[in-house]
Every structure is written in C-alpha cells, then in structure tokens.
C-alpha cells in the first residue's frame, strides 16, 4: 500500500507542481473575472447577473474510506446520500450540470491528499465532501486552503478540525469530540456517575477524546480513577475489562471508536461488567456499531449523536428513501453528507457562482434548515452548530424493528453542545469571543 | 494482599487465565498454519480469511438455515475444509513445483478476494453471534469472573490441538503424511495416493481455521476483516515456534498468549508489539525458531 502511494507521488510530483502553478495563475484570473464582469455589467447597465460557474460544471468530489474500518459509517452509503442530494436538486444548478467524482482514501492521509491534489489540478473540482478519518481531513483541508477550494467534513471526529486546524475553506458539519464528551460525560456525571475509568485508543483521536472527557468529568465534580491506552486496533479487550472491573470506578468510559468500541462492549457484556454494578459510557458510537452489537449487548448505553433517522416525520421520510436504495438505515454522517451537499448546491444556485469565498459566505449567511438540522449556523471557524441528541439504546423488548434502537432522552441545544467561540484556538476567530 | 510489581496477585491470576485462553486460540490457528507449511510447504496467507469464513458460515447458517452452534461446530469446518480442498485441487496444485513465494501470493490474493466479496455484501461492521444457551453465564473463581464460554474455548482448543498432534505424530496415517512430504515418489511407489493425502492435509489445515472461526464467532463481532487482523500475529507465533513444527506452534501459541496478557497489565501500549519483539529476538538467537529442526 505504501509502495503504491509512494510510486504515485513520485510520478505525479513534477507535473502536479507545474500544473498547480498554472492552475493558481488561472485561478487568480478566474477570481478577477466576476469583478470585471460586474464592472462591465454596471457600465452597460444591463442588470443581468453574470454566471460564473467555472467550466460550466459544478464538480463535487467525494473522498472517504470505501473499504476499511470506517466504511459503514460513511463509505458507499455516503456517496449515495450525496447523489441523492444532487438528484433532489435536479442534477443541475441554473442549467449547469453537476458532476460527482469519488475515491477511496483507504484511511491514509497521503492517499487522500494526493487524490485531492489530482482533483484540483486536473478536474478543477469545486467542492470536496465526505472526509472521514480525522488525519485525512486535516491533510486535505490544508491543501484545500492552499488551493482555494471548498471542503465539507462530515465524518471526522477531531474537534481540532475547526479549532487549531481551522481554515476559511472548510466546514465541519455533523459532530466532533467536544459535544460527544460534553453531552454524554456531563449527563452521566450529573446522574451520579462521578468516578471514571477510561479505555483510550492510543492515537491522536483517542487522546483528544480522552482529554475532552477528563475535562468535562473533573469540571463537573467527578474523578478519573484510572485509564489505559490500548493499541489501535485491538480485538481482545478481556484483559482491559478485567482491569476496569478491578478499578472500582462507577463508569467505564470508552474513548475509542468503531471496531474497538464494539469489541470492548461485547467483552464487557461477557464479563458481566454491568451486572457487577458498573456502567459503560461509549463516547463515539454510530448507528452501524449499535446494529453490529445487537440490542442484547448494547441496551441501556447512553451516547450522543448528531442525528437519528427516527427523530420526526421529515427524518423518517428521507431515511425511508435512503433505506430503499441502500437496505440500511443512514448514519448521522450519511445524513449530514446529504444535508451539507444540498446546502452547498443551494448557495451555488443563489450566488450563481462556484467561487469558494462567494459560496462559503452565502452558506454562512443562510441558516441550515432541512431534515438534518433546524436553524443550524455555520460559524466563522467553519463549525456548523446544530442541536445534538443524548440517546439511550433500547432494550430488545422496547425495540419494534431492526433499526429501532434509540430513545432520545434530551435534545442538547447547539450553543450548549459545541465549543464556544470564546475558547477557540482558531486564528480566524481568536479574540472575537 | 500479596503484590507483584505493584499488581495484586489475584489480578495477576486473572490476567494469566485470560492469557492462557487467548494463547489456546493462537495455538489452534497457528497449528493449522504449521500443518499446512510443515507438510505441504505452502505459506497459507488465506488462513485468516478461512478463519473468517468459518465464523461467517456459522453466522449465515444460523440466520438462514437455523443451524445451531453445536451443528455449526462440526459442519462448518467440513464445508470450509472442502472449499480448501477445491482450492488445493484447482489452484495450489498447479504451482506446487514453484518457489514458496508463488503459493504465498496466490493464497494472499484469495484472501483479498474472499474479504472483498464479503465486505461488498455485508459491510465491515459485522454482526453478533449469540453465545449458546448451555455456555452462557460464568463462574466466580475468587480472583475473577470467568465466562463459561471462554472456559469452553480453552478446553475445546486444547483438545483439538492435542488430537491433531496425535493424528500427525502418533498414527499410521500421520506417518504416511510425513513420509509423503519427505519423499513423495517413494511413498507413491508403495501404493499410497500422495496427491489425495496432500489435498486432505490442506483441507485439514483449513478446517482447523474454520473451527477456530466458529469458536470465535460468539466472542468477537463477525466481520469480513476479523481474520486479517489476527493473521500477522499468528504468523509470528509460527515463526517463533519454528515453521512447520506442530508441537512448537501449540506451545508457542500458549506462551505468546500469556506474554501478551501480562503486557496488557504492565505496559498496555506495547500489547500489539510484544509478540514481534519476541519474534525478532528468537530470529536473532535461534533462526529456525524455538522448536524448529532445520538450521
């Protein structure tokens, strides 16, 4: 895998640098174009809006893990959600066709970055969506900022994406580690779960989540009695679960994701962790994880999610359409991809432009109101702030079907859920509060 | 309470027990690999995928055919083993006279095809397989709560390991097998059908992987990638034990399970690495492995 990535980088190195120069030169001209066009327009007093959709196509690139660990939370289903948005929009913007490209980043920042460079250099792409593994998203958004192209991150967890890694060119749509810790950990401490033992995946995302959770727990009067950093990925958690049982903590918090969380929960249920008086807190759990665990194992678990298919009439109607195409209910990430693409296309249509700054400004001005979010606001740091949901996994007897798995306990208002701008490290908003 | 290196003795007992259970599992998987390599000189990179197929067959059998756990434990190894025989007859046989590397590439390619197909059909999240009624619950051992199913895995894996060792090292059939790999022409001259024995041996190795898969199904989520995560560790076990040594694979499997288990207590960050550290040391000091015969 590494060999291929290296080879392709070698091959593409020279021409890509050259073409980047050319394309950035062209881009300057392209950006100057609306100005001169507007000037000309005023001079002629024609009063007709000048179309500025580059090469008469709106090109959207979908980059995600299509075959690895994170496939089921975004993957091919996310691509279909994006296509649904394009179809619902009518397949064209103001008469200009919409084209969708897609690629598998194989969870490698290298592969992702090279793909996006290629899209920008050779395809003149207008927006990159999907973006799942946090490492890939951070690498890609850096390139998007350099090359002045828009990115919408839907799958990643790291809150740093709109904190120290913020750029004017990308938006983080669905969730991040801040509301996950804030929502789940705070609710549990408030209910009396004040001593915690943390199982953390030993890499950047796990450390970030661990830090956020520790902060929330201690700030609310709880204590961290122990923690273990386990290798990523781990299949056998029995040893760690036994250590957690020995710790005497009331809550065993899982600062990991995907198969690690699923394995830890399965093992905990086999070792009778809950029966011996402890509770589990999963901090990042997707619908597909709960589905994989089964309700017997997952029941009673509290978690925070950005969206759920069974919230209201609107979400149910959209999810039903999605289900008919994909034979699975959509995750919050897949729904977010639909919502963000639609919001983007609306902004392109309203401004009749695919210029990054113009579209980004329009997206920021317009509240997000669709089946995914109500009155969602895109802040200057790129964070799309919307309500989050604290949910509890149903027991098998409460569930009426394969995908009927959550009870919504509390709606967490967006303003309360996400990191306040006053605490932001983002250079775009620092000091503005 | 007695403490060892700051860890209460009771906790250590629990961890040793878990290490032994994981070790028995490693032993079962490396045994299949060792049988295939020791007797056929094929580096079976599809072993992880065949283990995964075992787990999947149990899951799908339960979902679509109502196959219960005990039936799956017997039928699934037979079915997956038969698939192994087909692979041996159609593909591996054609390259048996070539370098080991070709067998490795062929089986690796097969593993990717099996995995990719199942990822496409079922996704990567996997599904859970219920623990059979008779084996649910657990014992309180004083130092830990031991789930009955894990105790069963330990017993079943050790019994099967012993049976396979006995079959190959102590029976007439095993003697034919070993002779057949030493000198196929001569053994054939005695009227023994060597190609058939080669097919059956590969089938046996694959069946062992599938058996391990069925044992694992209630423990871990059944997903198409479950095998590839495990395969590298199991290969390391076989290398440490000495490629092709059957007893070596079993004993090393148990030992590595325990070493890994202790690492998870003292320095969890290194839990995935410790087996490879041992492998490096063994290769430097005893390149043929702890129980290997050839230099």
Automatic annotation (TrEMBL), chain B:
Pfam families: BPD_transp_2. Keywords: Amino-acid transport, Cell membrane, Membrane, Transmembrane, Transmembrane helix, Transport. The keyword Nucleus does not apply. The keyword Transmembrane helix applies. It is a multi-pass membrane protein. InterPro entries: ABC_transp_permease (IPR001851), BCAA_transport_permease (IPR052157). It is found in: Cell inner membrane. One of its GO terms (biological process) is amino acid transport. GO terms for molecular function: transmembrane transporter activity. The chain crosses the membrane at residues 12-37, 49-66, 72-92, 104-129, 149-168, 200-220, 232-258, 270-289. One of its GO terms (cellular component) is plasma membrane. Belongs to the binding-protein-dependent transport system permease family. LivHM subfamily. This is Branched-chain amino acid ABC transporter permease.
């Amino acid at each position: 895998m590494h060999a291929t990535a290296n080879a392709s980088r070698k091959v593409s190195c020279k021409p890509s640098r050259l073409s980047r120069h050319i394309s950035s030169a062209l881009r300057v001209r392209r950006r100057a174009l609306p100005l001169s066009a507007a000037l000309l327009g005023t001079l002629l007093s024609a009063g007709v809006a000048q179309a500025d959709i580059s090469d008469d196509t709106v090109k959207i690139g979908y980059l995600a893990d299509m075959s690895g660990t994170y496939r089921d939370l975004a993957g091919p289903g996310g691509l279909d959600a994006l296509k649904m948005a394009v179809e619902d929009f009518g397949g064209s913007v103001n008469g200009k066709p919409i084209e969708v490209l897609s690629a598998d980043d194989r969870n490698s920042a290298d592969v992702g970055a090279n793909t996006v460079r290629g899209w920008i250099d050779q395809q003149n792409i207008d927006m990159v969506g999907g973006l799942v593994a946090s490492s890939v998203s951070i690498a890609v958004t850096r390139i998007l900022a350099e090359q002045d192209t828009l990115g919408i991150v839907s799958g990643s967890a790291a809150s740093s994406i709109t904190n120290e890694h913020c750029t004017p060119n990308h938006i983080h749509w669905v969730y991040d580690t801040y509301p996950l810790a804030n929502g789940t950990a705070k609710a549990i401490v408030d209910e009396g779960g004040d001593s915690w033992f943390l199982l953390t995946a030993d890499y950047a995302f796990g450390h970030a989540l661990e830090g956020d959770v520790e902060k929330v727990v201690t700030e609310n009067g709880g204590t961290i009695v122990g923690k273990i950093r386990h290798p990523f990925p781990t299949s056998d958690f029995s040893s760690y679960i036994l250590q957690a049982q020995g710790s005497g903590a009331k809550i065993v918090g899982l600062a990991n994701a995907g198969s690690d969380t699923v394995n830890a929960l399965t093992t905990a249920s086999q070792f009778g962790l809950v029966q011996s008086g402890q509770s589990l807190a999963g901090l990042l759990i997707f619908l597909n994880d709960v589905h994989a665990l089964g309700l017997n194992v997952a029941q009673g678990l509290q978690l925070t999610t950005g969206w759920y298919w069974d919230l209201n009439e609107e979400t149910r109607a959209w999810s039903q359409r999605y289900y008919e195409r994909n034979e699975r209910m959509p995750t919050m990430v897949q729904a977010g991809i639909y919502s963000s693409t639609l919001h983007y296309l609306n902004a392109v249509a309203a401004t009749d432009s695919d210029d990054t700054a113009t579209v980004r400004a329009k997206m920021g001005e317009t509240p997000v109101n669709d089946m995914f979010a109500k009155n969602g606001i895109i802040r200057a740091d790129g964070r799309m702030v919307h309500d989050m949901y604290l949910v509890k996994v149903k027991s098998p007897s409460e569930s009426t079907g394969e995908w009927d798995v959550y009870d919504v306990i509390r709606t967490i208002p967006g303003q309360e859920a996400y990191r306040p701008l006053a605490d932001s490290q983002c250079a775009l908003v620092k000091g503005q509060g | 309470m007695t403490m060892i290196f700051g860890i209460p003795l009771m906790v250590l007992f629990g961890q040793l027990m878990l290490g032994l259970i994981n070790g028995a599992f490693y032993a079962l998987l490396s045994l299949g690999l060792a049988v295939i390599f020791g007797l056929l000189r094929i580096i079976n990179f599809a072993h992880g995928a065949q283990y995964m197929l075992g787990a999947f067959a149990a899951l799908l059998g339960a979902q679509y055919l109502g196959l219960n756990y005990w039936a799956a434990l017997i039928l699934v190894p037979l079915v997956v083993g038969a698939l192994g025989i087909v692979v041996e007859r159609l593909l591996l046989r054609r390259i048996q006279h070539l370098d080991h590397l070709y067998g490795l590439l062929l089986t690796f390619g097969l593993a990717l095809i099996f995995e990719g197909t199942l990822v496409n059909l079922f996704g990567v999240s996997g599904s859970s397989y219920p623990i059979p009624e008779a084996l649910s619950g657990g014992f309180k051992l004083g130092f830990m709560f031991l789930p009955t199913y894990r105790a069963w895995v330990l017993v079943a894996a050790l019994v099967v390991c012993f049976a396979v060792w006995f079959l190959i090292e102590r029976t007439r059939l095993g003697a034919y097998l070993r002779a057949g790999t030493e000198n196929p022409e001569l053994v054939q001259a005695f009227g023994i059908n060597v190609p058939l024995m080669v097919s059956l041996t590969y089938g046996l190795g694959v069946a062992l992987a599938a058996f391990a898969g069925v044992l694992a199904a209630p423990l871990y989520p059944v997903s198409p990638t479950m095998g590839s995560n495990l395969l590298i560790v199991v290969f390391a076990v076989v290398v440490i034990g000495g490629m092709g040594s059957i007893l070596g694979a079993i004993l090393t499997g148990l030992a590595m399970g325990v070493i890994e288990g202790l690492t998870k207590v003292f320095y969890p960050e290194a839990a995935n690495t410790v087996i490879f550290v041992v492998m490096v040391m063994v290769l430097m000091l005893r390149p043929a492995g702890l129980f290997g015969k050839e230099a």
